[in-house]
Amino acid sequence: MKPLFKLKLKSMKRFFILLAATTLSAASLYARSEEQSLDSLRNYDIDVIEVTTVNAKRTTPVAQDNLSKENLDRSAYGTDMPTALALTPSIIATNETGIGIGATAIRLRGTDATRINVTINGVAMNNPDSHSMYWYDTPDLISSVGSVQVQRGAGVSTNGTGAFGGSVAMTTDALSTKFGGTASLSYGSYNTNKQALHISSGLMRDHWVVDARLTHIGSDGYIDRGATDLKSYMLQAGYYGSNTKVKFLSFGGSAKTYLTYNGVSRKDMERYGRRYHDSGQYVTSDGPFVLEDGTHVDYYDDQTDNYLQFNNQLVLNHRFNSHWQFNTTLFYTYGYGYYNQYKDDAWLAGYTNLNTSIEEADLIRHKKMLTHLGGVNAAAEYRTSNLDVTFGGSYSYYNSPHWGTLSWVDGMDSASVGGKWYDNDVIKHDGNIFARADWTAVRGWIDNELHIFGDVQYRYVGYKAWGTNDNSIWGDEGVYMQPINIDNEYNFFNPRAGISYIHHRHNVFASAAVAHREPTRADFTDRYMFSADDTEPKPERLIDFELGYTYIAPRVVVGINLYYMLYHNQLVATGMVNDGDDALNTNVARSYRRGVELMASWRVAKWLTLSANATLSQNKIQDYVDELKDSPTYGQNLGDMTISYSPSVMGSLMADFHVGGFSALWHTQYVGKQYFTNNEIEALSLDAYCVTNLNLGYTLRTKSESEVRFGLAINNLFSTLYESNGYGYSYMWDGERYDDAFFFPQAPINVLANVTVNF
User: Whose CB among 114, 437, 602, 676 lies 3.0–4.6 Å from 728's, allowing a Cys bridge?
Assistant: First the structure.
């Protein structure tokens, strides 16, 4: 480990030097062309590096919501970004530790994290293999983000994996032209704590700004042993000219989280309480914990997920004149991590690196991965009074070896447990070109505009994986590791068209879009030998129709959005798992999501705003026959079933109060019933829940222009007993059907206090 890590540090050092040199060279090149004064410089949008590829405008025909810096700061006491995203319509936040820290995720309109594109400054953050965004890999990112835009549906042309069904576009916070910073401390229930320090240099030599942030977040978690230890940094250096901006960013850190992903059954919650889970549990004659049947057990104290990640971006934005501007981003992400797992009475034949006659033994194993992701995004924008055209493209290269080792096997000496018990590698090429135009076809004298929008994207994906996976297989010649042999290419054409009409306070839009998504790594590997034939998973296609209306008055905002998302070959949960308890997905020929999103906001007074949103939907599979061998529903038509994790009702009520330096935000969210599989089995479902959070704050301003902000987040105010997430599967044994479900309970009322000093 140490030699490998040192080697990577050397590589990272060379990379940073190269980036720094590139930054300085680019800045010097454009600096020679700068002729405007410092006053002009300050008038030129020094705050933001513009990203024209992912953000939608008011006139863009797409359902969208924006989170302000104030919204983000209220959620930045220690919890992850999904907490803030859940304030927007149709989004659900989930968490495995029970308090919003650690393994968090979101769902949008029922679609999971693998179908939601997440970008930072236009750079896709989704893992190219799993398509998911792992928020704890970038701890305290919320403190460095200046704005967030959520697009529901297919959205505008985007970069990277996961651009399918929804997107979250984030931009890093503005660089301050004044010297200063912030110091923040948080502490609350379950030993949850946060320490953060942020310092900005202010404008130096009329053009340069540097700032940096260091953060530590820790928690014991609500779930037993659900501890989280997150360390992160953010470094930004910017050059600002009158027409040119260059910005270098490096952010990331280390994450150590206890493995809680197995959840807990209803039966075990009744036996041992809602905080119980059995990850890392092993039987021992003198264990301090006693199960219901009298068995003595103990727990391995390092049953953890460990991950180190560095994200680097070099952003260049140049405005040639009032019509043309150009931006490009070079990016590179390095990651290394591993699961550290204790296995009680493990079947040793499944570890092919061992040469032993022992059939079962306790062991400690490490499942490791190394990631390299690099590429470039580029776009040019042309603007006139009636026409806005953006065109460009992106390319990324991803390489990620996966392997497993053993550090200890009971009854064997250390020299006999060496080597890899599985070993595979992945390479992925992802490129796209796009062109987008917004034409103002009609412009009247009372804010009367008709916009015609067109957007086309061609995307190429080359995905190759080879070696052996971590699933052991019984064959005619004995036990062997599951082979991986994937070499696929995908060519996707994603068009979008729409219109937007604005008349004074009224905004109406309609659009139609096509989006595609390739299968994930798990869609290939987890279905091995479970499919009725040897076919591979197929890519998904979405045809998305949207119709929206918004009324905007000085004190009232009302909106309605109708959507119909028609899927071809959508990958949905089958209700079965492989021997590693991984859910098995299968393509469904036809399925759909259709619904209505309602939004309203009323500024009752200067100090009080009331708002509400609701989503009513149907999410159905059409005419699907179960062809998975060994499935309890084999041969049955499962058509007209509800798609997994898709509640038919979601809604929120919010009250935003502020007077003087005092503020309060009340948020109540209701989420309807969710099924774990596409079979509508009651035993495999998540009950509806309603939870209320209250956020209080007081800002004390001093004569020196500094300020002190006190905050108190009260989560689950009424101590609702609920589970935000879960999973389940079915199987047959001796001719009988069994349904197993596991849940992630959330903490009752819990608090997190914060004090932040801005200087």
Answer: 676
Q: How many domains does the chain have?
A: 1
- Structure tokens given for 143: 């403190």
Q: How far apart are CA 7 and CA 10, in angstroms?
A: 5
Q: Give the span between the Cα atoms of 348 and 344, in whole angstroms.
A: 11
Residue 691, strand partner residues? 669
Q: What is the residue range of 101's domain?
A: 2-758
SS3 at position 524: helix
**Mean pLDDT over all residues of the chain?**
88
Q: Residue 404: in which H helix or E strand, if any?
A: strand 402-409
Please report which helix (H) or strand (E) contains residue 507, including its range.
strand 506-517
- pLDDT at residue 578 tops 90: no
Task: Please report which confidence band the pLDDT of residue 158 belongs to, taking 50, 70 and 90 as the band edges.
Answer: low
d(CA 248, CA 628) in angstroms, rounded, equals 50
Nearest to 457 by CA among 432, 438, 489: 432
Bridge-based pairing state of the strands 296-299 and 281-283:
antiparallel
Helix (H, G, I), strand (E, B) or coil at 677: coil
Tens digit of pLDDT for each residue in 708-739?
Answer: 999 999 999 999 999 999 999 888 888 888 89
CA 596/CA 712 separation, integer angstroms: 34
User: Of the given ranges (303-307, 348-352, 581-585, 742-746), which has the lowest mean pLDDT?
Assistant: 581-585
Three-class SS of residue 557? strand
Q: Is the pLDDT of residue 27 over 60?
A: no
CATH of the domain at 585: 2.40.170.20
Q: Which residue has the tokens 């079979």?
A: 679
- Give the rounded distance of the alpha carbon of 138 from its chain centre: 10
Helix (H) or strand (E) holding 298: strand 296-299
